[in-house]
Amino acid sequence: MSDDIRAEIAALVPRLRRFAYAISGNRDEGDDLVQTACLKALSRLDQYQRGTRLDSWMFRIIQTSHIDNLRRRKRQATPVEPELLERHSDGGQAAAQSDHRLLLARTRDAIAELPEEQRAVMALVAIEGYSYKEAAEILETPIGTIMSRLARARAKLLPILAEGAT
What pLDDT digit, counting tens, does each position of 26-81 carry? Predict the structure, then answer.
C-alpha cells in the first residue's frame, strides 16, 4: 500500500512544483516547499486517509508549509544575498527573446504581486485546472471565498497584462 502511495506522490511532483512556485513566487523556495511536503507526507503516510484525494492532501501540506515559512520569516530578518540579486537583475533580457516569454514573465510578476491567498487560488483554479469546489476543499475555505479571491485576482491581473499587450 505505501509503495503505491509513494509512486502516486512521485507522479504528482510536477503539479506540486507548479503550485509551490505559484504561491511562493520563487522557484528555489517552491522546490524547497515540494521537498518539505514530500518528506512530511512520506513520514506521515499513516495520516493519509485511503480513498481521499492524494493531490488535495499534498497541496494542503504545501500550503501549510508555505504559511509556516512566512510566519518564520516575520519573526527573523533574512539578509539578501548579493549573488541572488545579480542573478535576478538580468531577468528581462531572457524574456525579451520572444513575445511568449515576455508575456509569461509579465504574468509571473503580476501573480507574484497578488496577496498569498489569491495566488493560491489562482494556482489551483487557473493553472492546475481545479474546480472552485475542489480548490475550496484543498484550501479548506468556503467556495464563496474562493470565487471572491479569484475574481479579485483576475481583476488585478487583467490591467497589468493588458498594459503589456499594447
Answer: 889 999 999 999 999 999 988 888 888 999 999 999 999 998 888 887 777 555 56
Residue 4 belongs to a domain with what CATH number? 1.10.1740.10
Closest CA to 143 of 112, 116, 121: 121
| The one-letter amino acid at 8 | E
Distance set, CA 131 to CA 61, 121, 127, 137, 155 (Å): 19, 10, 11, 10, 19
| Domain's final residue, options 48, 78, 108 | 78
Domain boundary among 25, 47, 78: 78
Task: Name the residue type at position 138.
Answer: I
